[in-house]
Amino acid sequence: DAGNGEQLYECPMCSLTCTNIQILEEHVDLHLEEHNFSEGGNIRDLELAQQLQTEEDERQRSEEKREREEFEKLQRQYGLDNSGGFKQQFLKNMEREVDRGRMQPFEYHKRKADMMESLASGIDDGRTKTSGVIEALCKYYQNENKDVKRVWLSVGVDHFHSSLGDRGWGCGYRNFQMLLSSLLQNSSYNDCLRDTTLIPSIPKIQSMIEDAWREGFDPQGASHFNNRLHGSKAWIGACEIYSLLTSLRIKCQIIDFHKPTGPMGTHPRLFEWILHYYSTDSEGGAKVVCSSKPPIYLQHQGHSRTVIGIEEKKNKSLCLLLFDPGCSSQQMQKLLKQNSDGTGLKLLRKFVGSLKEKQYQIVAVDGVLSLEEKAARCRASQVLTSEKIP
């Protein structure tokens, strides 16, 4: 007995003393359970529990690894993996060409110097540019008499293709250069393009899009890129082109052909929309219409191109004419010496049956914005929407 008259209970299996019989009973039960475990009664349950836990840990680790790899793959695909941008890729690819004996060291140094100059000035070096294709097409169609009933062409457009610095991710920027080359030939845009009289380099275009974001355009899109494009290999799409053009006070719209509108996953409504765009301001029945319309930016998952015109065949079918940034200057040059059989046009022609992506978006330019309209569009782009067809 304790001095203060409390009853003490001692554990028969160890020397612990308790003041409460219930606590002692629970304590003794624990001893007995432990004893059972060591006798092997519950050992299998314990092993099973541990094995299940190990498997669960493994599963979670591999799931986390898969998610991390997916995320890194997406970052690489969208050029947000901090592996550098145009300049780093350009130098790396040139070094590779020298290593493989495809480029002389003196040419490497010359091109490096040219590139540094182009980056410093913010002006594209014009190395991947082909001019005069629209004019050559105009001539060709005047004499073509097999199957084209009518054809509509954009205002002059220079073709730009990807270079060593942006191969694999630069198509959106190259299509912007094509569109801009056409706007610069149209005096109605002189006022908006006062500061952009020469075609900007890709890093410069990246900075211009960042400027548009800073003005408040498309905050959701901006945050997707962490508000940063310059120095990255980030892919851009219709929303970035829209923000950039609108920030320059160029009036444009995004049209979203979000699902096929014809059999076999085709998009006839896209072709009809483009025909309507080109043919609205051309009255009369001329066979070749060299319209005053700028080209159209055409985007689908993973690639973008520039629509420079549309043919209507004698059998009423439609055929788009596209400039693809993936086409080299050598291929484009062939179109300048267009022979009478038109084989070179295979590069440009796309029929309804050959555009079968799930979804297409276009950015179409249509005039100039006042400062008030620009401000209103900036406010509206807090949630950037497109017109959906159908």
- Uncertain parts: none
In the CATH hierarchy, the architecture of the largest domain is: Alpha-Beta Complex
- β-strand amount: 15-25%
Mean pLDDT: 91
Tell the overall outline: elongated
CATH topology of the largest domain: Cathepsin B, Chain A
Classify the helix fraction into a percent range: 40-55%
Largest sheet geometry: 9 strands, mixed
How many angstroms does the end-to-end distance come to?
92 Å
How does this structure look, described?
It catalyses: Thiol-dependent hydrolysis of ester, thioester, amide, peptide and isopeptide bonds formed by the C-terminal Gly of ubiquitin (a 76-residue protein attached to proteins as an intracellular targeting signal). The chain is elongated, with a radius of gyration of 33 Å. α3 packs antiparallel against α4 and α7 crosses α9. A hairpin with a 6-residue loop joins β1 and β2. The mean pLDDT is 91. It starts with 8 loop residues before the first strand and ends with a strand. The strands form 3 sheets. Strands 4, 6, 7, 8, 9, 10, 11, 12 and 13 form a 9-stranded mixed beta sheet that branches. Strands 1-2 form a two-stranded antiparallel ribbon. It folds into 3 domains: 46 residues; 37 residues, no CATH class; 259 residues, Cathepsin B, Chain A (Alpha-Beta Complex). By secondary structure, it is α+β, with helices and mostly antiparallel strands.
